[in-house]
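Morning!

This is the sequence you dropped in the shared folder:
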Amino acid sequence: AVALANERPDARVIGSDISRLALKVAEFNAKKNKVKNIKFVLSNLLTYFWRRKIKFEVIVSNPPYVSEADWAKLDRPVKDFEPKKALVSGPTGLEIIEKLIKQAPGCLKPGGYLILEIGAGQEGKVPGFFSDIWQKVRVLSDYSGRPRLVIARKRS
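The structure's back. Tokens below.
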């Protein structure tokens, strides 16, 4: 969220996380980089915004997308640096992504976009979670050619 706010000083950005510690680190980074067009809220996915009927033009998320099996195979430095809750979604790695896709329509304006980071091998499954309320669902690759993002537009 801090990087997005820094790149788009004309935008109003809200960063959210379920972890208070993650929010404190993000607040520190925003201050350190003099990013002023951002605020932070504690939220389990989009619950905070849904309850307050807050609607966005764009929602960008890097949700946990690692499966339990893949977590067991991760290198020790990754496990030591990132809390498991920040990386692991559940047995398949898709559980939180699926919940987020279901919550997003209630927090997006008509024509708004949902942009999600996904993990290796998920590009064939994630587009199937989108209902007919969505259009233009597509997968984009990162600079190394790996499928990395799913972008979808809420119908107007």
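Headline: The first strand starts at residue 13 and ends at 17.

More detail when I'm at my desk.
O.
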